[in-house]
Amino acid sequence: MAQVSTGVTTSSFAGSGPAADQDDRTIAGLHIPGSSTLYTLLSLLQLVAGIAALIAPYRLTDIFFKHHIIAPDLLYEELWRLLAGVLFAGAATAYALKVTSDRQLLAEPLTQRLQLGFVWFALVALVLHLVYLLFIKTLTWWGLLLGAAVVAPTLLLPVVHLSLSGGFGLAATIHGFRTGLGNLVHPRSFSVAGFLYTLLTVAFTVVGFLIVILPKRTLDWTYGYHAGKNPSFLWQWVGAAFFFLFSAITYTLTERSVVGRLHTTVPKVLNVGLLVASLFFILDFGTLIFNSPIAGRWLLPVLFGHWVLVLLASILGLSASPPATAYEYEPLLGEGQV
Fold first, then answer.
1. Number of domains in the chain
2. Would you say 221 and 167 are in contact if contact means Cβ atoms under 8 Å apart?
């Protein structure tokens, strides 16, 4: 083992290819002291924030937004509930990164992909906070501080680790992309779950992009109205998770599926996050579909169907078992003897 000045422990025996396949065991690789504890704390932070969004949506509405609302629209509760689902998925992702840290996989494309998903999700969320505070002027300073308390660690921790592992380098990015693409083009196994993850990655990216750039329009297409600028902020925060966080999760699960590794720990944790998040979105969108007419809200059934597929994919992923190994013939006692 060799120590470098940054405090990062590496091994000359670590390889980029095999390590990605051995995500269920400890191997020689990149270890950053304290990273496991920090990802555990980040997971707990996301979990606590999600619980707060779930149990106190109207209180958070009063804290986050200017112009005190005597009777907040029900849309606020629904959007905070969706954001809770996002944060619970974030908690699962942070715990998955804790597992990769324990197993010295911080320099692997699998880990860097999840870290980049966190970084871009948190960065867009932070920009949204600043835009709505300084330019749109609907967010309060307390809203910025509370939001930053969750978003800033989600941004900074992966940024530091990506810097130490070389995950921001162009060569590393291209290598990770080519590795993942190669696994998709030449899969070791095919599964329905893998197909669903691929489909969901594309859907998350497209829908997330639309929500971020067209918040009011997509709110109209989903809920039938948008209720002003405040709900747009929450909706764009959710859209950023679609575009970056969830797409990173499903792409990672796609790649794990095609190399036959869905049964390992990291994919299991990520699938738990998807399953929990899907329940929140299905409950919200399903209630709207079955309790009110869909006329003019064409995006609503699309999102409902999308999250049903997420639920199905996560269940299939959680039920995945190790691939059957080749049978090695052992001669019977005395066989081959005269």
1. 1
2. no
